[in-house]
Amino acid sequence: MKILHLSDLHFPTPIPFFQLKGKMVVGYLNYTLRRRKKYPPYIWDSILKSVETLKPDAIVVSGDITNVSHEKEFQTAGKILSELPQDKIFYIPGNHDRYTKQAVGEHPFFEKYFSKLSGESISHNAEYIRIKKIAGMHFVGWDSSLPLSILNAYGTIHPEVISRTQEILREKKIEDYILVCHHPIWNPKERQETVHHRLLNREEIARLLQKQPPLAFLHGHVHTNWVKFPGEKMPYYVVNSASSTRLSDSKHECGFHLMEIEKKNLKIQRYTYNPEQSKFTEAPLVSYSEKE
């Protein structure tokens, strides 16, 4: 089975300035003035061509399809993402998809536009747990994001989410699964996050996951790729594919990953945009052991 992992797509969407409120103003100006040029549309066109060439069985997007959670952004993202094979997709939201309280109100924008592609809800409370079976593999999605002040982008996963997930896995007799969450559960030493940006209780999450570990933990949030190989504390791969639609530079190793699973073994390939060939080509893995 082949899984193509994308993250932090941040599709550009023009928004009338008078429709921006609160932190959306700062966020939109930051994106428009500082980051938009780093996300040229031809990168997405090249990703679509890669999908045609690589022919994955499943496509995972681990959050941040928008920038400031304006409803128009979700509408635009829906049209763009419709170019992917819809029966192969699994989405979860990221912090930019939960950017404002309006976006997570009584009718959350992400669920309004992407619920059908995000799997079955298996939570009996307000917590977000989704599960979807694609080509024989089960994908479990968690939502680690919440609307915060402009200075914060941290995340958290309530322990009840983990216990409920493991309960469902036992009930359905699911042994092998892929876990998808926007915030990293692990960072390389040179890519550590501040308390304002990280998954706050990730040590607790890692400890609880030891009972029924996934084959891989797929995430985004930090805009540079890496892969952590299975270790003692986290006996599974940790894969970061952010930001798939961003141009790489000296501080950002951007692209996506293709994972091939055979008998619980993972073969992982990394692809980055090659400006000389105007397409994505295979590149060396940015890989680490758990102790690095």
Task: Furnish the topology, listing elements before pairings.
Elements: E1 2-6, H1 23-35, H2 41-54, E2 58-62, H3 71-81, E3 89-92, H4 109-114, E4 120-121, E5 129-134, E6 137-142, H5 159-171, E7 177-180, H6 202-209, E8 216-219, E9 226-228, E10 237-240, E11 256-262, E12 265-274, E13 279-283, E14 287-288
Parallel strand pairs: 1-2, 2-3, 6-7, 7-8, 8-10, 9-14
Antiparallel strand pairs: 1-11, 4-5, 5-6, 9-10, 11-12, 12-13
Report on the architecture of this protein.
The chain is an alpha/beta fold and 292 residues long. The chain has a single domain, classed as Metallo-dependent phosphatases (Purple Acid Phosphatase, chain A, domain 2), CATH 3.60.21.10. It has helices at residues 23-35, 41-54, 71-81, 109-114, 159-171, 202-209, and strands at 2-6, 58-62, 89-92, 120-121, 129-134, 137-142, 177-180, 216-219, 226-228, 237-240, 256-262, 265-274, 279-283, 287-288. β11 and β12 (265-274) form a beta hairpin. The protein is globular, with a radius of gyration of 18 Å. It starts with a strand and ends with a strand. The mean pLDDT is 95. Belongs to the cyclic nucleotide phosphodiesterase class-III family. It comes from Leptospira stimsonii. InterPro entries: Calcineurin-like_PHP (IPR004843), CNP_phosphodiesterase-III (IPR050884), Metallo-depent_PP-like (IPR029052).
